Fold each of these.
Amino acid sequence: MKIIDIKDDVYDELYELSNGMTASALWGEVIFYLGETSTYEDRKQFFLSMMYRLMKEGRLKLAFQNKFLEGTIKEQLALYSERWPKNEADLDEVDFEFTQDHTTGKLIDFWPLCGFVWFYENGFVEGT
């Protein structure tokens, strides 16, 4: 995983557009910002870099079944990255956190095995 240095104005805009939302919302904003002509791998690395900065600044944590993931931020993101589907076509079109069987249309798997928990300056905490 390669952490990309994201310009402050871009980071701030993507944060404003996706805070309090699921990972799918952030993924959608990354696609919009980078454009669909960008590679799947470039979008993935940009997304993970946004997550890294959000986590480093204390705005975001990852949790599963009401328990925060353990390990350093880089360790958590490495695990998230390892689980990431290799083929973009496997991602569900509505919620990228799921893979889909395109022959039946059924969702197969919640691949990240964790969700976003947002932390706000006023002390409010919101899970997705």
Amino acid sequence: MHNLTAITALGSSVPSVDTVDGATLCENAELALASVHARIGHETACRAALADLLDGRVPDVGKVILRDPEAAFWTGPDQWMVGAPYETHEDLDAQLKARFGASASITEQSDAWACFDLQGAKMERVMELLCPINIRAMQTGDVQRTSLHHLGCFVIRRDPSDWVRILGPRASAGSLHHAIVTAMRSIV
């Protein structure tokens, strides 16, 4: 048997934390992700299963349901991304397949995305330098897909209001991290 060691998206054994006057960027390596796509003809059953998971709610366009332990956001027509703590949901895709049955196609996404949490009083100024979304108009529970340093990313407005979660391609985690930290340093 191979003796493998888990590493974060930035290649370390511990998540990266960067603090620059008024903003803190934390690499979040503890997020399990899976995509849910309703199968043709099973959209109603898929929505019902998702609503059952999320206390009767289904994320609408540009929205996220922030719930403990599972959360979900809309990614396209009859498509959502579901996230949960990795510690208790390492097999999130299998858990969702059992719940959704034939109503949805479930794809494991944990190793496809890098997750960064940006928080602090200067978060909005940092985000304004990084991407073309109106971060000041976003409320807790809003999500937008955008280009951040030429990378397709999701930006999720969390609670408290000085916190955003950024999901970007894991293969470009180093570039994304560099862009965010550079923006953090440039607003000081």
Amino acid sequence: MTKPNTYLFDFYGVLLKQDAPGQLKRVFRAVGEPEKETKLQEIYEELRPDLDAGRVSEINYWNQIKLRAQLEFLDPQEAISADYAGLEEADPEMVNFALSLKQAGHHIGVLSNIPKGLAQIVKHHNQSWLDQLDALVFSCDIGAAKPELPAFHAAQEALGVPASEIVFIDDRLENVEAAREAGMQAFVFTSLAQLKKDLEHE
């Protein structure tokens, strides 16, 4: 196995803090129709890959949810604001670890499923450390979302190294399996301590 010199990180659940239950609760409050929350969540998750990949606009995404879940009171702009609130916060420990790899001479990149509006918020809030990375690959910019293989191919191209030299780190097993299918080494992220153990034995 080729010894890697390049590390590719996911955003949410790895470099950025994630609060999926809280995120959905904010959306539910914005919609204000408790009896339809289960249906809303189902459609929210079903259509999300197309939003993340930029195949539909944010307004169209929420209008589709409104139509299919029969949400009488949903305001798309209010839903977008609720959906993105608080999602720009980095995990300082993980960011410092990634930057330490960069300082040690490794190439560092990000591959994230993220809608265009949220990507702009995240980049603005985290510019100081994101500017130090070698590649930022966002699903909204490439027309593909993990675990779709073109997303990994785009990240490999952006990093400019063979897939076998890349270690991909993500908190979702399906994305890790897809990265391996694309030829990368990959680990499911659970904690920094576990990641360090995984990398020691790569």
Amino acid sequence: MAKIAKRIVKSREGIDPNKVYTLTDALGMVKERASAKFDETVEVAINLGVDPRHADQMVRGVCNLPNGTGKTLRVAVFARGPKADEAKAAGADIVGAEDLVEQIQGGTIAFDRCIATPDLMPLVGRLGKVLGPRGLMPNPKVGTVTMDVAQAVKDAKGGAVEFRVEKAGIVHAGVGKVSFTSEALLENIRAFLDAVQRAKPAGARVPTSSAWPSRRPWARA
């Protein structure tokens, strides 16, 4: 813990807490201060100024990052017959129906993204208390309840990130690795900002990529 604390303190050296940095400058500082022994994830957090307790202020969506996330996601698909075959051909790691439900109920959740065809949602609904808290429940709003399972699998594998506003009115997502070029990270962040902009209710604040308000540039795993 002491080593982690020292690393955090060191990463903040030279950063003025009263200054608003441009996105380009913030990314430069993040890359300069990356010190972990692994390829850290660059994460963006935006305070939207909304109250998610009100249904009309909920912000949720999905963003296809043009340069991917740098992570290898394991994708599970609930489908039968031809749709199951399509999911497998598209690269899904796990495909099933009742058997997959039993596996999950037994405590095995070996995937990072879950997709389902609409006809199997009554079956998947049994797993709400298990998948919901983990953010894995398929949802048509983010394209994970669909008949086009092949495209959904390709999107997930290709860098699609889901986002949802938290209790404090903040939405965040990993947008790449510190090993990415600054240009690649900029493209990903702009795509994320655009996606949040489209998903936000009227009155919510979304910063522009040319005037990034982050006062503490940072990277995390």
